[in-house]
Structures are given as C-alpha cells and as structure tokens.
Amino acid sequence: MSRIDRRTFLALPALAPALAGLRLQAAAARPNILLIYADDLGYGDLSCYGATGVRTPNLDRLAATGLRFTDAHSTAATCTPARYSLLTGEYAFRRKEARILPGDAPLLIEPGRETLPALLRKAGYRTGVVGKWHLGLGRGAVDWNGEIRPGPLEVGFDESFIMPATGDRVPCVYVDGHRVAGLDPADPIRVSYQAPIGSEPTGAKNPELLKMHPSHGHDMAIVNGVSRIGYMTGGKSALWVDEDMADVFTRRAVRFIESSQASPFFLYFATHDIHVPRLPHDRFAGASTMGPRGRAIAQLDWCVGELLRTLDRLHLAGNTLVLFSSDNGPVVDDGYMDEAVEKLGAHRPAGPLRGGKYSNFEAGTCIPLIANWPGRVKRGVSDALVSQVDFLRSLTSLAGLKPGAAAAPDSVDVLPALLGNSKRGREEVVEQGSTLSLRQGRWKYIEPGKGERLNKNVNIETGIDPEPQLYDVTADRGETRNLAAAMPERVRAMKAALDQIRAGSRPPR
C-alpha cells in the first residue's frame, strides 16, 4: 500500500461521521412530503381546535409536536375549486369550469401544466395520489370499461388510486392508474347524469331498498344501500363498500410510502371523510356521541394515525414534512338523514366562525392546518395568514425549484410561515364562496351579490348580501358587525384591490 493510500485508508473512519452528516444534510434538503387532505372538516371539528364531542388523538399529537394554524385558508368554500387551486397555484375563480363537478366531467387540469406534483417529480420526488380526486377524468364521455386518460398520471403523479368524484356521486368505483379496479369486462359500467339507465332501482322509486335515506336530492342510483347523485349500471364486482373505504385508501397509502423509501416522495392523501354519505367502519361505533359524522371524524383520525405509524416504523418521520388540512368548511346535513343534526349537541363544527361549506363567511374557507417536521417545524400556534394556493410555490421552494413565470399565478412562497420561522404569511388572500371576498390582514371585504342569504338545504348562511360587507375578523371573529357603512374608504380600497386581482393585474402578495 502506498503512503498516500495508507493515509487515506487510516482517515476513513474519521471521515465517516462527516460523510453521514452530508448525506443527512442532502436528504433534509429534499424531505418527504405527506399532504393529508380531509373533506368538509370544519375549523372546530378536531379536539386540538376545541372539539369535545369527539377525540382526535393522532391529530392532537401532530399539532402538539408541530405547528397549528389559526388563520389558514382553502381558496374556496367547495371542494373542486379548492383542489384545483391546491394543485395548480391558481385561484379557481379564474376558470369558469372550476365548479363542483359531476362524476363524468372531463379533466379540469391541463396535461403538461406545471402542477405541484409535476414540479416535485422534476425535483426527483416520487409522486402519488390516493383518495378523492374530483377534478375530472378523460376528455368527456368517459368509457369506464377501458383506459381512462388523461387523469392524475398526466398531470404529475407517478401513481394514482382514486375515487373519480365524491362518495355521493356515481360511478362508485376506484380507479387504479388508468383503469377501474376490479372490473369484470362481462359486466360493463354505464353512467349518466341526464336520465335513468335501464330498469335499475333508484332511491326515489325504491326507498325500501335504502339503509340510509336522503334528506334532499341524492335519490338516484342505489349502491351499497345508499342512493347517490347520477345513474349507474354494471360494474358490480368493482363497486366500493363505503364502510371499507377508509381502510382501502389507507392500505394503498401505506403501500405507496413503503415502496417509495429509496427516493424522496410526495403523497397527496385525500380522504373521503368526513363527506357524505357518512358510513364509517363498525369499529368506530362508540367513538363519538355525534352519530355517523362524529364517528367519521374518529375514522379520519385513525387514518392519520396509520400513516404516522408507518413513517415511524420505516424511520422516515424525522425527514418527512406532514401537512394536514381540509378542502373547505363544515356542513352538517349535506343530503342524507344520518342524525348529524339531531346528535350535534354542543359541538360547533365551525368553532367561533360564521357560516360553513358553500358560504362567503370565514367558516367556508378558514380550515384546520397543521404542519409537522421534527426538528424543522417549530412547535406552537401561528396566526399567520396562509392559503393552500401557496402550497405549490412553498413546497417546490423546499425542494429547491422555482416554477416558471407562467405557472402558479396566484401562489406565494410562504415556506418560512409554514415552518414557523416567520409570523407573517400572505398580505392578502381571496376567498371564493358564491361571490368573492378579500382578506387583508385583519380586514375582510365581501363583495355584493345576489341570491338567498340562507342555503335552506344545508341550513348555512351564504354570506350573500346586495350591499358590501366589511369585517374586522381579529376583533370580531364571528363576523357579526358589518363596518362597511362606517368605513367607506377602506371598502373602496379593498374593492379596487379585489378587482385588480380578478383582472390579473395585481401580483400576489
């Protein structure tokens, strides 16, 4: 052995800790990202946000060891628009098609666009989506019996296992990649949102076949004893069982994590819970006094716990950023007679906020947000103003990428706020209900609109008013005092700012 070789050989043990440190530093530069996205979960629905009618120990632990946000927002008070903004970094009001989609709608996101998963894949991430999609599939007139494309795999995901739309909409099947999972070719699927198909029973004509009855709408095709929105025949071997859905999605999410250990991964785990129909597994029968809605919250918490335990088991927790949030605010009766209203008790799904799902008031978009990354996210509570539209630029910044100038037009890099390194988030954010609202710090402006002030189907205030509304949401979190008449100059200034944002002439701040 030469003198140089001998010196190098003798130095190797001393270099080992330094090399290991470099490897850890390189890994920390691109942490795994687990984004858990609940459905219709309100600001007050978790025990770490004040709920007492149900316990959420796994989410409570995530909040206790991480950062809990009190002024975080989805971009819209309904699901499809919020999910569109989350993945594209663009306010959904800019796309007239970005509304609550039927189950047979074409794909809303253009293939080739710089989406959150596409950019993270470019940065070396393995990307996956498991759970609710509700952003359309195909190019219209989907053939559910063949290849279904474009879909999640064409907008940046390496792996996809989804429900096409919602639990209360047909088709009631899982789509694995480009095909319906478990489909028997001899029993082809047919779907229609216009007229009944064949002589299949419906909720409207055959209520005696139902184990859960609709309170309004939801009276078409019957699947698993529940009538849905839309008509469907065939595909019997592929139909989901609602009570098993959380288990099916969670197992698939665990499998994705297990198979993605060799590289950093991004998993978008979009739960069905706590959307209607609420049919949690029987093992949650005693988990809440609030009936199926409370048990669905407990089931959601169990799903979170299973994923956290997987990270711990695989020794991945230390290098994984976990984000937990919801697509919009809460709704109690959203179309089924499931005792959610009767057993609500003292529970306040929106906490101190006014409104809920579908509403212009804060409960429509102010949602739970928890960030957790051991050693990197500071523990505590943050009142920084942040929006899910900012996840694209914030998370790609974390991965060392910067989107192109045309991508994510409304997204802002608020990574310091998400990690707890800054108390400031956005300066202003748009909220989409039936009309648009603008938040600037403590002030909220709701533009005038036409329509009913109460959505009678769900018993939620819409926030629609023919006159402008202005609230100080710091001093008046419940939006009880409209200050527009007393502060006309602020109303004019915020209206002008909202008009500029709508026109795309005001850069995101």
Per-chain topology:
Blueprint: H1 3-29, E1 32-38, H2 57-64, E2 67-69, E3 72-73, H3 79-88, H4 116-122, E4 126-132, E5 159-163, E6 175-176, E7 179-180, E8 190-192, E9 222-223, E10 226-227, E11 231-233, H5 245-258, E12 265-270, H6 291-313, E13 320-326, E14 369-372, E15 380-382, E16 386-387, H7 391-398, H8 415-418, E17 428-432, E18 436-440, E19 443-446, E20 454-455, E21 460-461, E22 469-472, H9 488-503
Parallel strand pairs: 1-12, 1-13, 2-15, 3-16, 4-5, 4-12
Antiparallel strand pairs: 2-14, 5-6, 6-7, 8-11, 9-10, 13-14, 17-18, 18-19, 19-22, 20-21
Helix pairs in contact: 5-6
CATH superfamily of the largest domain: Alkaline Phosphatase, subunit A
**Architecture per CATH nomenclature, i.e. the level-2 architecture of the largest domain:** 3-Layer(aba) Sandwich
Judging from the principal axes of the Cα atoms, what is the shape?
A: globular
Structural class: alpha/beta
Percent range of helical residues: 10-25%
CATH class of the largest domain, anyone? Alpha Beta
Give the strand line-up of the largest sheet.
7-6-5-4-12-1-13-14-2-15
Question: According to CATH, what is the topology of the largest domain?
Answer: Alkaline Phosphatase, subunit A
User: How many domain modules?
Assistant: 3
